Amino acid sequence: MQQKMNKSLYIWILLLCLSCKNAPVPEQTVFISDTIPLDENLQPDSDLNLMQKQDYDTALWVDIAILVPEIVHDIKYATSDNFTKKQIYDCPRCLLRKDAGKALKKAYESAHKAGYGMKVFDCYRPAPYQQRLWDVMPDKRYVAPPWKGSMHSRGGAVDLTLVYPETKAEVDMGTPYDFFGKEAHPAYKGLPDSTLQHRQLLTKCMTDAGFRPITSEWWHFDYGSSNAKLADFLWECE
Question: Could you give the residue numbers annotated as active site?
Answer without folding.
Answer: 217
